[in-house]
């Protein structure tokens, strides 16, 4: 059953990755189900009374095994209380950060609603819930790191300085593109704070300031993509974004990414 992150959860993760605002990942996650339709903006209604309660699950790598393939799933069964009255048609499963109210983090729409009546007890088998990022810009390294932090509580430390690069070949989620060599090329260091990457509230992040590179002293080829790393050379490849139009870098060119040119999402 595939799940989606809410805008709240996407913004929290984006604000850590681009903006440097740490996300306090919950130590305990709370599973519930909804009789109303959930969406990125928030949950649907949950059953009221009748024995219904969210189920607490410790957020660790025993219950959410570490992923290296960009897909996270539940490694433990989730068992709800037996209904003492009719709960109605269940539309979705949800994961919250609180036993009541709180913030919905992830929701899993049911392809076929399930009717919970007196005596029923919903059960979520091991491996039946899956979460992955569908955005085409983040690297596999970042996808794994964010999923393992969100579900498993594996620390992903704030990156204090981001290093922006450009590529002359097409990068993928797995592999960065080829950067120019010589002729004045170097990655641009950008302090990872909310001045450069303002706080996101609706699951989308942009750059608030121009990102300027050094002047080219010779031909560097045609830049097709912008890339992010966590080091001035080498380091971990974080993601990439296509340039439109592409830019030929010749002697005397000072490549610049204008403010608000990059829009970063998790889906």
Question: Mind explaining what this structure looks like?
Answer:
The model has no long low-confidence stretch (mean pLDDT 95). Helices cover 8% and strands 33% of the residues. The strands form 5 sheets. A 7-stranded mixed sheet has the order 3-2-6-7-1-9-4. The protein has a 4-stranded antiparallel sheet with strand order 11-10-14-15. It has a two-stranded antiparallel ribbon with strand order 5-8. By secondary structure, the protein is mainly beta. It is elongated and about 75 Å long. β14 (221-229) and β15 form a beta hairpin. The chain has helices at 7-17, 140-150; strands at 2-5, 28-34, 55-58, 72-73, 78-79, 88-96, 104-116, 123-124, 130-131, 161-167, 188-191, 204-206, 211-212, 221-229, 237-249, 256-257, 263-265.
């Amino acid at each position: 059953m595939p799940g989606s992150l809410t805008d709240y959860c996407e913004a929290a993760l984006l604000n850590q990755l681009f903006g440097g605002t740490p996300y306090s990942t919950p130590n305990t996650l709370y599973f519930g189900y909804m009789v109303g339709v959930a969406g990125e903006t928030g949950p649907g209604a949950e059953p009221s009374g009748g024995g219904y309660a969210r189920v607490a699950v410790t957020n660790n790598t025993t219950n959410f095994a570490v992923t290296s393939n960009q897909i996270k799933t539940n490694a433990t069964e989730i068992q709800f209380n037996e209904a003492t009255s009719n709960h109605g048609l269940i539309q979705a499963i949800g994961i919250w950060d609180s036993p009541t109210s709180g913030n919905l983090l992830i929701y899993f729409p049911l392809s076929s609603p399930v009717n919970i009546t007196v005596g029923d007890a919903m059960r979520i088998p091991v491996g039946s819930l899956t979460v992955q990022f569908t955005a085409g810009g983040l690297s596999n390294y970042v996808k794994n790191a964010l999923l393992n932090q969100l579900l498993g509580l594996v620390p992903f430390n704030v990156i204090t300085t981001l290093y922006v690069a450009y590529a002359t070949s097409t990068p993928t989620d797995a592999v960065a593109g080829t950067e120019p060599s010589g002729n004045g090329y170097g990655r641009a260091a950008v302090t990872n704070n909310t001045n450069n990457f303002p706080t996101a509230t609706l699951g989308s992040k942009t750059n608030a300031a121009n990102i300027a590179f050094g002047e080219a002293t010779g031909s560097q080829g045609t830049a097709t993509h912008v890339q992010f790393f966590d080091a001035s050379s080498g380091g971990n490849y974080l993601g990439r974004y296509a340039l439109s139009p592409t830019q030929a870098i010749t002697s005397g060119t000072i490549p610049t990414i204008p403010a608000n040119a990059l829009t970063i999402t998790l889906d």
